[in-house]
Input
Amino acid sequence: MTRLLTRSFVLSSVLAASLAGAFPAAYADGKPHVVILATGGTIAGAGASVANSATYQAAKVPVDKLIAGVPELANVAEVRGEQVFQIASESFTNDNLLTLGKRVAALARQPDVDGIVITHGTDTLEETAYFLNLVLKTDKPVVVVGSMRPGTAMSADGMLNLYNAVAVAAAKDAAGKGVLVTMNDEIHTGRDVSKSVNIKTEAFKSPWGPLGMIVEGKTYWFRAPAKRHTTGTEFDIDKLDKLAPVDIAYGYGNATPTAYRAFAEGGARAVIHAGTGNGSVSSAVVPALQELRSKGVQIIRSSRVVGGGFVLRNAEQPDDKYDWVVAHDLNPQKARILASVALTKTQDSKELQRMFMEY
Output
């Protein structure tokens, strides 16, 4: 293990200096200043041998070692790191989201910070990226990055992913595009991207395609985000101290209303229905959802389908009649994020529907 991590534990003199404290007022070389906020995940993981690419311990390597393992970062930016969390991302909570979001917002206000990179486990990376896209009010590049293999594995992807993330965060043409995700040489909007494959390094896809590519440290853009984000958002991380409790219930053959009722009894203010097809709802479940809505619980129809499309309002169910909301093209996990944020501002289903169409 020691031999496998040798490169990760050797700090270059440039990076050691940058980790020692805050940025000086100016740099002679004029490089952008990028802060890496580490939260754990596979990109900070370690396996028992180079053959272990799927069997390993996540969240083991601290941020200074991650930075030291990619000395080429010094070629594109002056980099320093902070360890915000050291956890596997499946254990991310709403409180973790708020803590991370407030730290990113504080850094984004600093004149000596040009871009921010967040290293993150891939399991819920898409949720964190979308949350930040909704609540941060900055046009500075914020890039979320992870890896599918630990750094100890053969053909580990974390080093290049981190290098690409820093290059994007340092790029002037990345400003104003909202929160981005760089994985497998692609640049995605945090709003669209999802983990659609496990094991493989090309795990992250957007149903409408990536925004661009990052090749040898240079950005190439092909489209821009169409939905509201960051500087155009009505939400504000600095005014959020708690997110609304929202849960997800899965639609399937022979479905029952048990989960929906249990979530409502547990305090959920909204239940995301991860429906089949176009957000379809089983006839055995419809009466229970009508009852929950009459008690004030928001019902939001999304689709469990992977790969694209969106839920049409009043197509499978009379949403207007039942006073339900549709998630548009947001998958169930991202619908939960938006609902958790949106319900801190409104309880009106029509306002919620507006937000789901705009964000």
Residues 1-28 have pLDDT under 50 and may be disordered.
